[in-house]
Amino acid sequence: MNPIILSARGLEYSYPGGIVALSGLDLEVARGRKLALLGANGCGKTTLLLHLNGTLKPSRGQVLLDGAVAGYGRQALNVWRNKVGLVLQEPDDQLFSATVEQDVSFGPLNQGLPEAVVRARVAESLETLRIAALAERPTHSLSFGQKKRVAIAGVLAMRPAVLILDEPTAGLDPQGVAHLLSALEHLCLAGTTLVFSTHDVDLAYGWADDVAILGQGLVVCQGEALATLADAERLRAAHLRTPTLLALAVALGFGGGPENPQPPPRTPAALIARIQSSRNESVKRPILQFHPKTGPTGTRHREEPEMTGNQQPEHDHDHDHVHEHQHEHAHEHEHPGSGSHTHAHTHTHVHPHAHEDTNPHPKEGDHGAHDHDHTGEHGPHDHAH
Q: Residues 188-246: pLDDT tens digits?
């Protein structure tokens, strides 16, 4: 189990006018994990994030960083915010320098780092967020998605142990979401702990390691993403729905359980792969030549009841069986000038089950009509059935 890097104990907070935002909230953030804070609008997600990096001070309760109670003095806050970086939902609230490069360098410069170190960190952060080409661009000329990545790069350049993001995908198109999540995944793989708020249950299901559901200023439940988001009743109580991918997986029989111990797929690609694998398993039955006595080679032969009168056998429509009966007939022909010759002919009767045959099992000796066309002394013998 990963150690706890950041936690909240009994946080209480009210906005002016007596609006209660947090009412005894508890939360734990595991090191190196991605934690999603889920809940309806107004449940306290943003207020909680502002407490986790010291921007707001609770009226009661504590925030612990690496097990130690975080302080609110100037020096203590600097240490705290160097370890826990916050990216706001609106990037314009965070960008104020003339160019992208200047804005990203602001945090490291305030940390008192040498200029060479600052330049290296800025270049690395821009490259990680895939915005190095924007270094000289004015911040006011950027798109919304570009501004979001610049804001993240500015916090990332300070090398925080925990990166907190308020609604990181809000306002982004699908391509922007994909680029941002790819960059954040890279940070997580490098050891950064991520905490993000969202009301998007599909994002939380597909990307988070852990989920905390908030409601009425409290953490209603917290745990691993799959187990937490599989609790439909708890989700409904928090005005949330079951993730679409999870609902589809359960409907298709991929929801886990004794009969299917594999956990449900958490990405569209994983669900498609599971469906294809299931379909491949269902069509692995071999289509082999049928023998009337032993059945298909390598498969079990179903016993058929004895047919009487005009009764038709039941056919297995999964396979087209072909019956071949071979009969040998000896014909003696006299050809002028050549004496008597005996020719053995082998006749093959093909009876597919699919055709309309009122007598699918001919009696012995009943082989249909045989037309013999003898040309010359030893010419070809054509037999039509």
A: 998 999 999 998 999 999 999 999 999 999 999 999 999 999 999 999 999 999 999 99
Cα distances (Å, whole numbers) of residue 250 to 245, 257, 275: 9, 10, 12
By C-alpha distance, which of 46, 53, 52 is closest to 21? 46
Is it true that domain 4-241 has CATH number 3.40.50.300? yes
* Domain segments of the chain as ranges: 4-241
210 and 32 Cβ atoms separated by less than 8 Å? no
The predicted structure's pLDDT at residue 283: 57
Output DSSP code: residue 92: G
Please list the alpha-helical segments (H only) found in the chain.
45-52, 74-83, 100-110, 115-128, 144-156, 174-189, 201-207, 225-229, 232-237, 244-251, 268-282
pLDDT tens digit string along 146-163? Answer: 999 999 999 999 999 999
Other Cβ atoms within 10 Å of 137 Cβ, number: 15
pLDDT one-digit tens code per residue, 51-106: 999 999 999 999 999 999 999 999 999 999 999 999 999 999 999 999 999 999 99
CB of 22 closer than 8 Å to CB of 58 = yes
Residue 72 and residue 55: Cα distance in Å, rounded? 9
Mean local confidence (pLDDT), 289-303: 47
**What global pTM score does this model have?**
0.71
Sheet holding 84-87, edge to edge: 84-87, 162-166, 193-198, 34-38, 210-215, 218-224
Give 119's Cβ-side CA count (13 Å radius). Answer: 3
